[in-house]
């Protein structure tokens, strides 16, 4: 589904990502782990077009999408979240979801300007999609709450819902559990597993090793910009190089 080959990014003399190659299979939850500074977020930025690669290729369904801008990457079905909350703070929760769903607009600009039936019908679909996500994420009672008024953890969960509003096939989640309490973590992981069961593919950067080991089908480990290991959670938890570089002896 998603394949990267020799993906490389330098910042001056710093090698942030050094000829990294791996692939993600459709319908799986794939973990991307590693110490801080190992290149995980840089990888996200390269794949989604927020940064250009110095070398290497990104393939989506066999198509070379290297260097495409973020809006074109998104329209191909790749969505992402960010470490920090990312929403329209002054808009309501529902309005955030509706705006994100407009990533895929089929009616013409003229139809929207004149409020023709095709544009009204499409806008109604965006509203229904937003309502479905509100229900799935347990946020129906927060629909009319301004995003800025939400607690930090709830804003993180909203960020995931916003990514889902673009109707993606692959969602790349950058530390989705950071800042969430225990109940919020359990709620979000249940939702994510349900989305995967429905056919969505997920790539997670996460430092919560318990969640990663329980949820992921495969895990890729980065260290200092290089690919250190790849395998099932069981294989990664027993890999000596990973334990030394990141997991710690208590996980072995």
UniProtKB/TrEMBL annotation:
ABC transporter domain boundaries: 2-249
Domain of life: Bacteria
Stated name of the protein: Amino acid/amide ABC transporter ATP-binding protein 1, HAAT family
The keyword Iron appears for this protein: no
SUPFAM superfamilies attached to this UniProt entry: P-loop containing nucleoside triphosphate hydrolases
Keywords: ATP-binding, Nucleotide-binding, Transport
InterPro entries hit by this protein: AAA+_ATPase (IPR003593), ABC_AA/LPS_Transport (IPR051120), ABC_transporter-like_ATP-bd (IPR003439), BCA_ABC_TP_C (IPR032823), P-loop_NTPase (IPR027417)
Membrane-spanning residues: none
GO cellular component: plasma membrane
GO molecular function, one term: ATP hydrolysis activity
